[in-house]
User: Fold these one by one.
Assistant:
Number 1:
Amino acid sequence: MDFSPADRPLQPADVAIHCGDLTDGSKLDEFRTAIQLLKDINAPLKLAIAGNHDFTMDIVAFEKKVAEATPPLDPVLVAKEYGAPGEARQLFEEAKDAGIMFLDEGTHHFTLKSGALLTVYASPYTPALGAWGFQYHPERGHEFSIERGVDIVITHGPPKGVTDYTYGRERAGCSDLFAAVARVRPLIHCFGHIHEGWGAKLVSWRQDCGQQPTHFTAIDNGKSTPLEKLASLEPSRFDTQEDTEHKLKKLEHYKQRRCCTTSHCAEDEHPLEHGKQTLFINASIFSSEGLPVQRLWLVDVDLPRARPAS
C-alpha cells in the first residue's frame, strides 16, 4: 500500500518504524511500493520488519507454498511476480543508502543523527493462521529473546491482552510475547497484524508479576491509561449527539495533522521510565472496514546519548 496525497505524513522524525505486512501478497512490485513509501517519509532512519503476508521473505515458507500448490505453478510466472528466493530481501539491501534497514529477528543497535542511542528488538513471528510466512504453532509457542535495556520492541503481532481485540471480541495476541515484554519492560512496544486493535495504551507495571506474567497479573490497570482506540473514533448506534460531535472533532484533528501524537519525555505529564511504564502501540494503518481513521503514530521519548569517542 501507499499513502494518498492527503494522508502522507508531513512531520519529520528521527526514526520511522514499519511493523510488518509490507505487502498484501508478497509480490515484488508491492515490495517496491513499500520501499518507496519508506523513502518518502521524512526520517533519516527507517526500520522495517516482515509480517505474515510477506511470505517470500520466509524462504522456507515460500518454497513450501510453491511446492504444495495445486495445480503446479508456472515457475516463470512465479519468478516474474514473486521473484526468486531472496530477491525481495535484495531490494531492501539496495535501499540501505536511503536509510532503510530491514531487521531480522533479534537485537539491533543504532546511533541516531541526533546523537541518541537506540536499541531495538525485532521479530516478525506470529501464531499460525493459514499458509503464510514467519509463523509458529500456537500450542508450541515461540521464544522471544528480548534483552534487558531494549528501548523499543518491534513485532508484527500484538502481545496478548493489549490492543489485540478482534471485531469478534477475542484476544488475538501472543501470551509468550506478552511475558517476554513484561519481564524486560521496554519504553515502547509497537506492532500491527490485528488491524481492528489499532490504538495506544500507556501501561504501568506492577512491581511483582510472577514467573509467567500475563496481562492479568503484570499490568497495574489503575495507573494505566488508554490513549486512543477505534471505538473512540468510529460511529456507533449508541452514540449521543455529544459523542458524535466529539468523535468528528478528533477525526478532523487527526486528519489535519495526518497522524496521532503522544509525548512521554521527562518534562511531560506522563514520562516513560525504563522498568516502570511501557507505551504499547498497535500501528495497523490498514482498515479492514475501509474507514480512514487508523493514522500513523508520532511519538516523542527520551533516549540516552551516545558517549563521545575517547
Number 2:
Amino acid sequence: MPFSHHSHSGQFCLHAENTLEEVVQTAVSMQMDLYALTEHMPRDNEDLYPEEVRSSYTAATLAKQFDGYFHEAQRLQKVYASAIKLLIGMEVDWIRPSSLGLIQGLLGRYPFDLFIGSVHHVHTIPIDFDKKLYFEAREKAGGTNEQLAEDYFDLQYEMLKALKPPIVGHFDLIRLLSDDPEASFVQWTGVWQKILRNLDFIVDYEGLVELNSAGLRKGMSEPYPKAEICKEFLARGGAFTLSDDSHGIKQVGTNYGRCLSFAEKTGIISITFLEKGAATKDSRFPGISTNAVSLVELKERPGFFYPEGF
C-alpha cells in the first residue's frame, strides 16, 4: 500500500507548487492508499524566510494562511474519503526554546492527526534554504561543518525532548548543503554520539523516523537518513515510515523504488504507517494508531514503486 506522511503544496507554501487539491488528486491518480497533509507551521516575524519577506508576508499572514490550510484539508478529507485516506497534520519548525509555546498553541487549537518534528534552523538561521544562509549558520557555530552538525543534533534533541513528535522529519537534513553531503557522520565522534543519543530517545518514546525520499531528488545517493544512521536505529528496535516530502505534484511518490531498494539493502524489513483506528497510540491524537507493512508486500505494487522494473 503506497503512502506518504509528509507533503506540502504551493497553495500554502511559497517554495512549493500546485494547489493542495491538485496534490491530493495526484496521490489519488497514483493509487496511493494514504496521504498525510503536513504544511509548515506559521512562524514569528523574526523567522520569516527571504521569499516570505520579498512577498511582504508577516507572522499574521502565515497564521491566516495556516488556518486556511487546515480548513481546506478538512474539506478535501471529506470530498476524497472514498478514494484515499487523508491525514491532517503539520510540520513543526523548532527554532528556539520559545518555539514550544507556538507549537503547543497550534496543537491545542487544531485537531491534528499527526505532526512532523523537524529542525530547519540552527542558531535561528535556516540551514536548508541556500548556501549563503548555511554558511552564516556554520560561521555562527564556529566555522566548521562538524561544529554545525553538533549544534543541529543538539537542537534536534531539544525538540525531541520537548515534543516527542510522532514522526521525526528528515533526521539528518544538516548534510544537504554541507561541503560533502555523502560524508559519514562517524568520522566526527562528538556528532556521532549525539546522533546515537537522539536515536535512543526516539526509540524510548516509540517515535517513527521517516525514510524521506527528498534526499534522493536533491542529488544525494541516499534518502534521509543515511544508511549508517538507519542501521543504528534498526539495531535499537526503531521503526521507520515512508515520506515523499513532496512540494508539488511532480514530487508525489518520487524515488520510492530507490527508497525501498535502499531500505532492503539497509536491513529494514517493514515500514510503519499511521491510520485511523480504535487503538490509539498517542493520547494527543485520539483514534490514530500504527500499523506496518512488509517490504515484500510493498514490492507487490511494482507499477507504483518500480515503474522501470526491479
